[in-house]
Amino acid sequence: MSETTVAERKSIEQIVHVSIDAQIENLVRSHKDLNITRAVKAPSLATGADPEGVKLLPKSSKKRLENDHIDLSKGYPEIPDRSEIPVFVDQAHAIRDYDMPYIERGKNADPEKKALLSAAKEVKDLTTHIGTVIVGLQLADLTDKQKDELALLIEERGVVFFKNQKLPPRKQRELGEYWGNLEVHPQTPHVPGLPGETVIWNDYLQKRGMNINFKNCNYGNFDIVRYGSVGNQVWHTDLVHERQPAGITHLHLDAIPEVGGDTIWASGYAAYDKLSEEMKKFLDGKKVVVVSYHKYLDRKDPFGEPKPVGRIHPLVRTHPATGWKFLFVNRSMTKRIVGLTPVESDVILNYLFDVYEKNVDIQVRFNWKSDPGYGTSAIWDNRSTQHRTIWDHEGRISRHGTRVTSLAEIPYFDPKSRSQREALGLPITKEA
Q1: CATH number, domain containing residue 407
Q2: Which domain of life is it from (predicted)?
């Protein structure tokens, strides 16, 4: 037998003794034409920094990055290496699947928030139930006491806005680390050299092949199962599949359309209080199955439909800082109520989704426009709110930003906790 034949036999024997899932994983990781950054309705992206992306960067965004000494020489944005991206759903589930220490900064803050509010030129509530604008403060200059008080204000008001900001990406990241455990996503684009500083740039994704247009951008709000979500236009709450889901999230836009590109938030406190007292009693203590946005291969059926990461969390949660109850459901990522039939679960969940989405009196719509040369920050409690973007600028005008999310506590429900209206002494209508 020739030496070549012997070598070939040994190679075949080695392959035979490697499990099928290991062979598939090796193929996915080593074959650059295979999509490893899988997401619903999102394009496949090459890993590493994108040299072509730098050419697409808005001038204001590039200036902000370069002023913070971000290295753009290899490209922008940066995708984690193929060796770091999960292939199988159990690999994705294992990420942060352990208890992480968490300090709730807002819990022991001054309830009157004197250090924060006295330093501002103006503090204005945009609606009765959600959304506050603070004028005259730079986020990069906050003291720890002001950060604690801001955390509490965010957790009470749902979302707080700051226009005309000079905020370097590294400072934004430091704020996120102060408020919780920094979320580093295994496969989404981030600022080069700054894992956890996620790039929010649908214009880039569109140029890379994402099929989003004037007609289809809102299909998911009609039927998420049939049409999926494209470009964050569907109502959602981020990272609900985490063992310790998102707490405070901070999005800073450094390229903003002159008109359009708004974002809407809705209050989960107020959504809960929209329910009848009997419905509240029924839902208190119930649990839901929630899933991730990205999907992965299943080792037991690697050639079947990819699956999301799934977890079980309370349907009604208690907020650790305010003590108020809120609805923890969203159309994009809540799949069923544990213990109910699929039909029962669908009927109730679709009603709860509508409570969030159709009650405009518990929503706030925000336009990001700042003065030339400045950016805008929105900082929200990603537990007790939902949000969605409005893609009316259609990518014709640049919209670019960076997002940092602080992961918080393991979700829980305290049966002794009260709703927001109960805690504030507001009227509660009781049905006959």
Answers
A1: 3.60.130.10
A2: Eukaryota
Helix (H) or strand (E) holding 387: strand 385-389
Domain count, the chain: 1
Judge whether 14 lies within some domain. no
Q: Kindly provide the residue ranges of all beta strands, DSSP E only, lying in 205-352, ordered along the sequence.
A: 246-255, 263-267, 287-296, 307-314, 316-318, 325-327, 334-337
Q: Which domain holds residue 108?
A: 32-424
Where helices occur in 87-182 by DSSP H, the ranges are 89-94, 114-117, 144-157, 169-179
Q: In what order do the strands lie in the sheet with 334-337?
A: 307-314, 287-296, 334-337
| 306: its two tokens | 């990819």
CA distance 269 to 324: 7
Q: Which residues contact 364 (CB under 8 A, 6 or more apart)?
A: 126, 127, 130, 131, 158, 159, 264, 265
pLDDT given for residue 44 in this prediction: 63
Q: Regarding predicted confidence, which is higher, 27 or 130?
A: 130
- For the stretch 247-288, pLDDT in tens is 999 999 999 999 999 999 999 999 999 999 999 999 999 999
CA–CA distance, 149 with 155 (Å, rounded to integer): 10
Is residue 331 scored above 70 in pLDDT? yes
This prediction's pTM: 0.92
* 287 assigned to some structural domain: yes
Q: How far is it, in rounded angstroms, from Cα 95 to Cα 105?
A: 24
* Neighbouring C-alpha atoms within 13 Å toward the C-beta of 351: 12
